[in-house]
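Give me structure tokens for this 359-residue protein.
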Amino acid sequence: MSKLLLISLGKLGGAVLEAAARDGRFPHIIVATRNIAHARAKANAARIGAALEGQYPRIDVVAFDFNAPNAPEILRKIQPDLMFAAPTYLPWWKVAASGNAKLKALPFAGWLACHLAPMLTLRAAWEKSELHCPWVGGTYPDVVNAILHMTGQGPSIGIGNISECLPKIRFLASQHTNAPIPELVIKLVGGHALSSSFYRDEAIKELPPFLLQVLWHGHDISLAVKDKLRSVKMAVEHDAEINRITASAALDVLASLLSDEPYALHAPAPNGLVGGYPVNISRKGVAVDLPREWMLEQALGVNAAALAFDGITAIEKDGTVIFTEKTAAALKALLGEEWPRLKPDDAPAMAAKLVALVS
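Here you go.
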């Protein structure tokens, strides 16, 4: 019986637990976290909800702190078949809820240290555990997972972001052709900033760079769909509840890594690449699945260019992030010091300064 290990239970981890318990493809779920009482209550709620929907997974709770010296030993003892983790010191929705205009003015990448620092700590425990099963990183994966791969071992794949763009594309393509959505074949390359642009209550002035192919029975309707993406409004509430959408995006990715048969999906950071891609995933691994018309170098270039819309100029080979001038200026205004770039080793110090602004 395959074991899915969930590390910690923040808003996203909790949503993934609820979704996975009801899904039927995860017979044994293990939650490893510091807050045992909270985790047991969440696990009980997930079991009850799943049972009401006819699913009865085994859910265990294990005391675990990836900052502790015994973290590698606990991971080794659990021996998961698959691990999912999305730790952060400061989730984006908490910043959004702060009501502080100065904090909201900081581009998304300005908060990178808060996402990268805990993932670096978890990765250190993972490496020492000497486990070799796949793992999925859900914390700003387009960038964080790429940095992890540049500096050591990294997650096999991420979740969300690019895959969350697909419903709007499918809806528009179906309306344009009067075609049933299952008859549409879509391939998309794009970064985190694309997904954050899609579901707003206003027309989009400028979309980040992306590649899109939409086929209906061999007919290419990509241009017609692409022209509508900026003008069609499709608002959702941008608060903590949006994690339920990301949890839905996680299910097929997690299930595919336990499957002998490949899944054709979209996901960020396959094998540490920056940005999101169409992929084939199975227990054998992850492979980018581009249309024949697109070269991998072209897709990589599109996602590298899209980083500017998050506030990043470039990511160097050692994982150092070069911020845009706008991001660097906003960080100086908030922190009172120059941060034109972020080296991975400096992430904990910068994260502590940023968290102090919101706490």
